[in-house]
Amino acid sequence: EVQLVExxxxxxxxxxxxxxxxxxxxxxxxxxxxxxxxxxxxxGLEWVSAINWIGETTYIAESMKGRFTISRDNAKNTLYLxxxxxxxxxxxxxxxxxxxxxxxxxxxxxxxxxxxxxxx
Length: 120
What we know:
Elements: E1 3-7, E2 10-12, E3 18-25, E4 34-39, E5 45-51, E6 58-60, E7 68-73, E8 78-83, E9 92-99, E10 107-110, E11 114-118
Parallel strand pairs: 2-11
Antiparallel strand pairs: 1-3, 3-8, 4-5, 4-9, 5-6, 7-8, 9-10, 9-11
């Protein structure tokens, strides 16, 4: 059974930083690209970032470049998202997703999400 379990979210002040983690199991993690997607309150899903199977190529949404960094540790079957300079508009539930075909919108498994709230 494929499982994706996110952690690391929480309440953070503007300007702060977080590292989200996603522990993967039930599939050969290092065979698949992975992505992060977020959903802000009252809004639709927004693709955030993706990383190829070996971790050598990464993609970040244009509006998030410079503040978001995706990485993976295939030995630990874990995906990460480092966020710095958090803004109130980063408040969202962040989902770890397994890529099926497209890095941007074709996913076959989702985690339960981790809430990130940016507020003073």
